[in-house]
């Protein structure tokens, strides 16, 4: 910065006054400028001021704390070590050369250290090891808190933990003051970490060594007894000790005892005066009219008895055990000792009407032929309907003359609420399936269309009868009588119809309907394949005796009744009856009533008794 010689203002004023200038000092001091002139003694009044006097500079420092004042001076000096004057202001300049963290000298930072264990040391981020209570493992800074000294030690969560060494071992020390297991066998020892059975054969020439082997073998004919070879002494003996820990034989008779190596039967007649003494002998004989019963002579009592106990362990009548002296298919009435047929079961119970399950009816309602608004049989009870059911609506429409719209409307309006809904569902289904569009006589078309509507059809056309009753109904319909078969189907419940469909599907799959007429073997083979499906349709709750009683009560001219009796038996009963039939056919050729009666109480008695127990 250049130095300027500054003259005092008073001197200038004095100098101007002494020159006789008419201008006052005020005027000179106030108006002097580059274009002003002054009168100097002996000088030219037009000489410029700048040529006759030094510069007069005014410093400019307003709002400035430092820097040049414009007149060669300073407005101020920055005192901070890192301050720098910028635009008249002292600004601190951060200094981070060579450092990555810490103070930048201006109240800021040169960087922040990342990581839980990082700290700023002399401008550098340095990891601070942390071990706390740890005796091993990482200190968090790629260092270690210590090493485990034990051979089987492993650092676990900062602590040295001994790791048991039991690989391929089941006993012995585990190296950590524990064990790999204990040996349980009486002769087991732990050898190199493995339980090993040590044979025990000291003082033994044969027998088990305790480890699944033997201490030795004996010569043929000898046996090992208490560790020594022994020759059994049984010559002439059939029982008793053989001298080598075994027997020469056992006495099998219930009254046999071993005496001097021989089995001797000891007769037992205590409390008996007849019958066997248990040793092929007799405790005594009874009179001609007596029998031996429980060791006592007893006189049978069959006076006025056609069946039942004779009080001496037998039966009066034909003495047959299975029927207590009665003929087959009969039972003994204990009160009067008379044989009677098995009672026919009541298959109607509380039914007022409807099928009895045997091909007949339990009764009819007061007006079976009346119109649909009169009393009819519904769910085995006579009831007065409040309207037409779905199937009755179809029947009503069938009775209307073609084009009789009033009749048809009456049929539709007389339906019960539920019947109307089912009627509409079936009608809609048939319409959508194209049933009504099939040409006349095109059975394939109508069958295919109708097949899709079986569910609403069954909901409309069904009754209260079981699948078994449906089966009986169908087999009694004359051949080709579609009205009869249709009536059978409409009398069955929806569940019965579904079970029947499963049976028919099975027969179809086994070519039953492809059999040539009269080929009984073909029919029997297909039927046997579907016996489960048939019994699911045709079964009931009758016992074997109930079934036989039912059959005995059937009219000789009612061919459906015996079949109905049989299929109302339980499935085990039906199977047992089949066994009886097979047995009778084996011993009776031809099968007659007399032969059947005889073999049921003789050759087939066990089979017959098995059925009667069901």
Describe this structure as you would to a colleague.
The chain is an alpha+beta fold and 614 residues long. The chain is built from 17 helices and 20 strands. The strands form ten sheets. A two-stranded antiparallel ribbon has the order 1-2. It is flat. The protein starts with 8 loop residues before the first helix and ends with a helix. 17% of the residues are buried.
Features:
two-stranded antiparallel ribbon, 17 helices, two-stranded antiparallel sheet, 614 residues
Task: Provide a brief overview of the structure.
By secondary structure, this protein is an alpha+beta fold. The chain has helices at residues 9-18, 25-31, 390-399, 405-413, 417-433, 443-451, 454-460, 467-476, 482-490, 494-509, 520-529, 531-537, 544-552, 560-567, 571-587, 593-600, 605-612; strands at residues 83-86, 89-92, 118-121, 124-127, 153-156, 159-162, 188-191, 194-197, 223-225, 228-230, 256-259, 262-265, 291-293, 296-298, 330-333, 338-341, 354-355, 361-363, 376-378, 381-383.
């Amino acid at each position: 910065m250049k130095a300027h010689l500054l003259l005092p203002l008073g001197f200038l004023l004095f100098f101007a006054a002494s020159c006789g200038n008419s201008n006052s000092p005020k005027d000179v001091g106030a108006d002097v400028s580059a274009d002003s002139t002054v009168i100097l003694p002996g000088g030219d009044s037009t000489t410029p001021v700048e040529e006759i006097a030094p510069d007069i500079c005014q410093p400019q420092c307003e709002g400035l704390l430092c820097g040049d004042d414009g007149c060669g001076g300073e407005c101020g000096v920055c005192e901070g070590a890192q301050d720098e004057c910028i635009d008249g202001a002292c600004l601190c300049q951060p200094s981070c050369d060579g450092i990555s963290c810490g103070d930048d000298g201006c109240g800021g930072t040169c960087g922040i250290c990342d990581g839980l264990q990082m700290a700023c040391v002399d401008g550098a981020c340095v990891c601070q090891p942390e071990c706390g209570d740890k005796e091993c493992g990482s200190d968090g800074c790629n260092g270690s808190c210590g090493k485990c000294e034990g051979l089987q030690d492993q650092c676990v969560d900062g602590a040295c933990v001994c790791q048991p060494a039991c690989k391929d071992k089941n006993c012995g020390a585990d190296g950590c003051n524990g064990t790999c297991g204990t040996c349980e066998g009486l002769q087991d020892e732990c050898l190199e970490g493995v339980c090993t059975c040590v044979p025990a054969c000291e003082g033994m020439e044969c027998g088990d060594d305790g480890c699944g082997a033997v201490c030795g073998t004996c010569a043929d004919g000898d046996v090992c007894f208490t560790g020594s070879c022994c020759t059994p002494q049984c010559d002439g003996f059939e029982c008793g000790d053989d001298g080598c820990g075994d027997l020469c034989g056992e006495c099998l008779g219930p009254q046999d005892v071993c005496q001097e190596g021989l089995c001797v039967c000891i007769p037992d007649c205590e409390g008996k005066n007849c019958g066997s003494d248990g040793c092929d002998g007799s405790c005594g004989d009874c009179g001609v009219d007596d029998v031996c019963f429980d060791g006592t002579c007893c006189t049978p009592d069959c006076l006025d008895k056609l069946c039942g106990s004779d009080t001496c362990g037998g039966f009066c009548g034909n003495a047959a055990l299975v029927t207590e002296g009665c003929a087959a298919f009969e039972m003994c009435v204990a009160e009067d000792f008379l044989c009677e047929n098995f009672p026919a079961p009541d298959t109607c119970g509380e039914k007022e009407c409807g099928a009895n399950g045997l091909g007949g009816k339990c009764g009819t309602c007061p007006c079976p032929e009346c119109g649909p608004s009169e009393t009819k049989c519904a769910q085995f009870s006579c009831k007065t309907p409040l309207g037409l059911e779905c199937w009755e609506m179809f029947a009503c429409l069938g009775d209307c003359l073609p084009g009789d719209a009033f009749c048809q409307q009456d049929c539709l309006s007389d339906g019960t609420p539920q019947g109307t809904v089912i009627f509409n569902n079936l009608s809609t289904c048939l319409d959508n399936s194209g049933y009504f569009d099939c040409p006349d006589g095109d059975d394939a078309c109508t069958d295919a269309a109708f097949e899709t509507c079986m569910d609403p059809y069954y909901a409309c056309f069904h009754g209260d009868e079981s699948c078994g009753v449906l089966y009986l109904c169908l087999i009694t319909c004359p051949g080709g009588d579609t009205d009869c078969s249709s009536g059978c189907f409409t009398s069955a419940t929806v569940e019965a119809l579904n079970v029947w469909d499963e049976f028919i599907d099975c027969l179809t799959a086994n070519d039953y309907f492809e059999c040539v007429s009269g080929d009984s073997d073909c029919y029997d083979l297909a039927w046997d394949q579907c016996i489960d499906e048939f019994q699911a349709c045709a079964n009931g709750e009758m016992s074997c005796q109930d079934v036989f009683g039912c059959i005995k009560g059937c009219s000789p001219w009612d061919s459906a009744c015996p079949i109905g009796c049989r299929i109302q038996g339980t499935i085990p009963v039906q199977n047992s009856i089949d066994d009886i039939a097979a047995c009778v056919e084996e011993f009776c050729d031809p099968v007659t009533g007399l032969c059947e009666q005889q073999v049921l109480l003789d050759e087939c008695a066990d089979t017959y008794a098995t059925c009667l127990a069901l």
